[in-house]
Structure formats: C-alpha cells, structure tokens
Amino acid sequence: MGRYRYHIFACTNQREPDHRRGSCTARGSEEILKAFREELKQHPVPQPFRINKSGCLDACEDGPVFAVYPDGIYYRVCSREDARRIVTEHLVEGRIVTDLQILPPPELS
Ligand code: FES
Predict the structure, then answer these.
(1) Pocket of ligand 1 (CB under 6 A)
(2) How much is the pLDDT for 2?
(3) Total tally of structural domains belonging to the chain
(4) Domain assignment of residue 1, yes or no
C-alpha cells in the first residue's frame, strides 16, 4: 500500500467569470471544501488519507469537482450533504457514491 489509502483532490481552479467552461471556484468549491473538512472531522476515516486543493481536473462543466484516488473516482459535490455522503459512504465504508459520480468522457472510458 502507498503512503495514504485515499488522496482527495478538491478543484479550486478559478477562471474569468465569462470563461466558457466556468470554474469550480465560481461554483462554490472553496466553501464545499470547508464543509468537506468538517465532515472528515465528524466522521473519522479509519485509514490514512490526505485532502488537497488542486488545479483544474478537466471536468469543469460538472463541478465543483472532487477526485478520490487511487480509486480514480470523480464526484460533483454541491452541498455539505454531498460531502458527508462521500466521507461516510466512500472513505469510511468503501462504497462509491454512484449518484454523485462524474462518469469519464467516452474517450477515457
Ligand atoms: S475548473 Fe474544476 S475541473 Fe476544471
């Protein structure tokens, strides 16, 4: 096993407001990241993990985007409730939260 069981990347990329792809920060990713960290404190993950801000994860239109590695799962996280579900269901119980998952584009599938 690597250093961490899970590494979570929260896109906090910011673009000009009129950019055609938008950005996760414009969709509230900084506030969601704060809520995500609070949920991590309330629901301790039994295995080592790390959460970091990241640049663009190339799923901008579906943001705010959070990616969970090494599973390679991308999530659209729009609320504190979404954050709680990812923490408790994926990180604590090991189940992918399929209804929040952003599926890869066909060229990457
Ligand atoms: S701006 Fe967040 S995925 Fe591109």
Answers:
(1) 11, 13, 23-24, 56-60, 63, 65
(2) 83
(3) 1
(4) no
